[in-house]
Design a protein that fits this description.
Elements: E1 3-6, E2 16-20, H1 46-55, E3 58-65, H2 67-70, H3 76-92, E4 99-103, H4 119-128, E5 136-139, H5 142-150, E6 154-158, H6 163-169, E7 177-179, H7 182-191
Parallel strand pairs: 2-3, 2-5, 3-4, 5-6, 6-7
Antiparallel strand pairs: 1-4
Helix pairs in contact: 1-7
């Protein structure tokens, strides 16, 4: 089951949507997981990139594996507090995230929502009432890119977080577009207008 934290969502067929992984794309990642609000630190330029996308009419949605919940490394109240810090930091930068979808399960749970499976992205499509074909899905790991490929979204690799390691290892979809960071993604998307 996919879990999400959000305000009200008004489904529409004309939504301009972008889906972002959280750790390694918006904020710095950690091998020990992001377990508290103090550990959540934005990647330079990421908040401003989200604000620019918002101002251009994009709805920004986060899709994140959060197996730290399933492992007992943090609880739901802590995850909410981490996301509150993210939302406040974004508001100060003039941006917002419209919804946060997360999978709390561990890798051995065989759930349908944990990336690289596409369940979380499929749920985003249902909730927003859009076909995700061609929708930009930004991640720093191969799981993010494979989930995007599974629903025919546009996989975008950023080289922040695990991105450089992902690039070196390869094994990601052939149609993956690669950018240094989220700021470059925003610039490229906005240049297409």
């Amino acid at each position: 089951m996919v879990h999400f934290i959000s305000g009200p969502i008004t489904p529409t067929r004309h939504v301009r949507l972008i889906v972002l992984d959280r750790d390694g794309v918006i904020n710095y990642d950690s091998e020990q997981f992001i377990k508290s609000p103090d550990e959540w630190r934005p990647v330079p330029g990421s908040l401003e990139a989200i604000a620019r996308l918002n101002h251009a009419g994009f709805r920004v949605v986060v899709a994140t594996n959060q197996s730290g919940l399933g492992r007992g490394l943090f609880d739901m109240a802590t995850l909410i507090a981490i996301h509150e810090k993210m939302h406040k930091a974004l508001a100060l930068a003039g941006g917002r995230i419209d919804a946060v979808f997360y999978c709390p399960h561990t890798a051995d749970s065989n759930c349908a929502c944990r990336k690289p499976k596409a369940g979380m992205l499929e749920e985003i499509g249902r909730r927003f009432g859009v076909d995700l074909t061609g929708v930009p899905c930004v991640g720093d790991g191969v799981r993010d890119l494979l989930a995007a490929e599974a629903i025919q979204a546009q996989p975008i690799l950023v080289l922040t977080g695990k991105g450089e390691k992902t690039l070196r290892e390869g094994n990601f979809p052939r149609n993956t577009v690669i950018f240094p960071d989220l700021a470059f993604v925003a610039t490229a998307l906005l240049a297409e207008e």
